[in-house]
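Model it.
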Amino acid sequence: MRQMHPSLSDRIIHMKASATIEMADKARQLTGRGIDVISLSIGEPDFDTPDHIKTAAIQAMQSGQTKYTPVSGLPVLKNAIVDKFKRDNQLNFSPENIVVSNGAKQSIANIMFSVLNPGDEIIIFTPYWVSYYEMAKLTGAIPVLVKADVEQDFKVTPAQLDKALTSKTKALLFSSPCNPTGSVFSEEEMRSLMQVIKHREDIVIISDEIYEYINFTDKHFSPATIDFIQNRTATVNGFSKGFAMTGWRLGYIGAPAWLAAACTKMQSQYTSGAAAFNQAAGAFALNSPKGPTKMMKKAYQKRCQLVLELINEIKGMKCNQPQGAFYAFPDISSFFGKSYKNYSITNADDITMYLLEEAHVALVSGSAFGDDKCVRISYATSEEILIEAIKRIGHYLELLS
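Modeled.
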């Protein structure tokens, strides 16, 4: 392990690096040595940003939209987001409820730093996206993990949520569609969960809906539509997944005015506003027909079925039926206690290193998502690559005994 410099803060020393980024780096290192590595580790669409969105950004730059922007976002984008929320989510916001950030990741961090004090508890539905846990720790708050396994489709129940509540609970965080499991909470399920905290008006709900447009059920439900939690729910979204705009770093929230103002204040001291031409392109994307987005979702759905079929052919792997996003999260615990050559498998970390070094396939250990019995497989790549990758995975798992 690399020696930490004595000048570093305790905060950075104790913070874990993003596991998805670390695994992508390891895969690149092997590739640099001439090894044919297939990376299924990164959560990034393999599609390019649609041309009409790129053209909008170019035109914005050419027209001089290259200056500083208002911290909470340009009016043209905030108005487009207001329209989007009303059209797609039946949420009635005004521009004062919208805060545009440099990615949905920053949006979530803004909310956490705005509502959490050291010692507060934030309930995180588990499995969770890798950065939730470390973000919460950075605020000084205590992450309380409420875990659901593959047998319950990775969906936390109202009884589990109720049991996790304490007088210190200050926030609740989850994603739907979920990264890493692909699970989607139905309206009925979401309403039942929110009923548990109906009378806890001190709890802020953070609903990460970045995969909204990659929902195979075609019935996305935003909990902020539930009247008794509207004034304490932040709906997080962005452009990276549904519009294949990962490198643009553009996200946003719709939230009660008091929370939006707090997030704007926080952002004003860290990054200020997102790039002007990015925001112009984002507004154009939201206001344009969603043909490319629907095409991408259709491709992901087809790949999902392919991956599930291939996984189900591997003895010992157990997977739920993803209903959104572009991940599979199979349980691989049946391989624990087995070995091959000098590899001894005791957890998901061991599995991912074994498959990277022997099968030359990069996955992410479920331990990064709060479940060390699983691995995350991203199917944001071609069917041909997926077939080859899972063929390799199956072969090397069979060698374990």
